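Protocol step 6 of 9: fold each sequence in the batch and record its C-alpha cells directly after the sequence line. For illustration, a two-sequence batch is reproduced in full.

Sequence one:
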Amino acid sequence: MSIIQFTRGLLAYLTIPPLTAAVCLSAIADVHWFRKSKAKAQIFPRTWGKLLCRIANIRVRVEGKENLDPAKPYIFIGNHASMADIMSFSGYISHDYRWIAKKELFAIPIFGSGMRAVDFISIDRSRGREAVKSLNDAAKRISGGASVILFPEGTRSADGRLRPFKTGAIMLALKAGVDVVPVGFNGTHQALPKGELLARGGDVVLRIGKPIPTKDFKAKDKQMLAGILHQKVAELLDECHLPLPEPENSPTASTEASAETEG
C-alpha cells in the first residue's frame, strides 16, 4: 500500500465515528424539526457512504440500474465480501430502501435514534416468539413499500468468495412477497478485506440483476429459492468472487458423480 493510500485509509477510518454521529444528528434534526420526511432523510446515509468511499479512494460504478422500477419495493440480495459493501451501496444506490439492523444497535445513544429517524428496520435475532414477531413485522414493512438490502451469507466472506446462502433472509423475502433483486458486489473485498481496518482503495462495481418474483414460491420452497438467488448473484460476480470448485474427492463431488452415473 502506498503512503498516499495508507493516509487516505487512515483518514477514512478516523472519520467514521464523527461522520456517523454528525449524520445521525442531522437526520434526527431534519425529521423532527425541518423537512419532517423520512424518505427525504435518506440523503444522510447516502452522504455517509459516498463521503467514506471518496475519502478511502474507493471508486464505485453501478451497472444495471435500468432493471429497477423506482416506484416498486424490492428486497436486494447480495454477496457480502467487505464492510465496503455497506459504504458503496449506501452511497451509490439511489433507489429508496432501508437497512435492516439487529435491535441491539437501536439502543446505542445517537446511533439508534439516527437509525429510527431514517426508518431503518429492527430485527430480533434471538430465538422464540419475539424473533418470529419481528420477522413478521419486517415483512409487513417491506410489503407495505419499504425496500431493503440483505446479505444471506450471514457474515462477510474471509476471502471475498461467494458462500452458501442461509434461508433466514429467504424466508423474509417469501413473507414479504415482493420481487427479489440479485446484486453482485465486485472489488469490495480487495478495497477493504475482512479483518483489516484501513481501506486499500480501488475500483468497485455493483451489478444489479433483474428482479425475480416470489409470489409463486411457498415456505417449503425456501431452499430452492436460495439456490436460484445464489446462482443469480454468482452470475453478477467477477471470477475472483466465485466459489472455488469442489475437489473431486469431496463428499459433494462424489454425490454429484454418483447421481450422474445413476442417471
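Sequence two, same batch, same settings:
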Amino acid sequence: MATHAPRSTVELDCLAPASPGVWQRGRTIVRRDTSLPTRSVTAYSEDRRIVVRHNLAARHLADSLVDSVTSVVTAAGGGRAEFETAMVGLVRTTVDDPHEAWATFYRNSLAELLDGTAAFAPVHRRAADLTTGSVLDLGSCFGFFPLQLALADPDRSVIATDVHRATMELLARTSRRIGVPVVTRACDAADLPFPDGMVDTVTALHLLEHVDHGTGMRVLREACRVARRRVVVAVPYEAAPELCHGHVRSFDRASLHCIGSELGVDYIVFDHHGGWLVIDVG
C-alpha cells in the first residue's frame, strides 16, 4: 500500500524555535543521537512520554520515513499526535536551520517521487495522467502533487489547498525556497471559496479516508461544482482504517461505486495502487 505523510488535525508549529537537536511537543520528545547507527530511528515509552531517538543525516530526510516512523511510534504506544510530532521533530532535529530543514525534506521527497522510488510515486503519476488543464488540489498537505505538476509545466495553473493555514504557509514559503513556487489557499474542502467551474480538474488524493461519509460527500459535490471537466479521487484500500495516520474509514471497489451512484454522475472506478473514482462533469 502506498503511504505518505498524513494530514494533521492540528496546526503543527513546523517553524517554531527549538534547541538544536531537540524537539518536544505534548508528550513526545525527539532527540538527535549520533551514538546510534547511521539512519536509525528508535522510540520507547518513558514516564508517559514517547521518546524518539535518531541518527539521520540531511540526505535521509524524506517522506519515505513515514513507514518506519509509524512502526516505531506505534510499537512505543504512540498514536496520531505522537506520530505527527515525531515526523516534524525528525526534520527539525536533523538540520538546525528550520527553513533549510524543510527545504531539504521537500527536495529529497520530490526526488524520490520523480525517480519512482517513493511508494506514492505510482499514485501521483496516474493522477497527473488523469488531469487536464488547470488543477485545484484538495487536502494537499505538504503539497507534493501540486509541486510535481508545477515542476512539469511552470505555466500550468495549479492551486494547492488544505484546511490548515500553517501547512499552506509552509508549502508556499518552502516552494519558493526550492524554486518551484505554487499558489496555495487555506480552505475547507467541503466548503470551497471558489466560483462554479473555476478550474478544469479537481483532485482529491488520499483525502476521503480522513473524513466521514457525510463530509466526504460534501467534498465531492463541491469538487464537482468547481470543476469544469473532471474530478479525480484516489483512496487507499485498507482492511481497517490506519488510525495512526488519521484515517476514519476504509474503502474498496464496491464502496467507491456506491459513492458514484449517490452523487448521480457519470463516473468510472478502477484499481491502481488503491482505488480510483473519476468523474467527468463536462
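Proceed to step 7 once all outputs are recorded. Observation for sequence two: Residues 22-95 form one domain.
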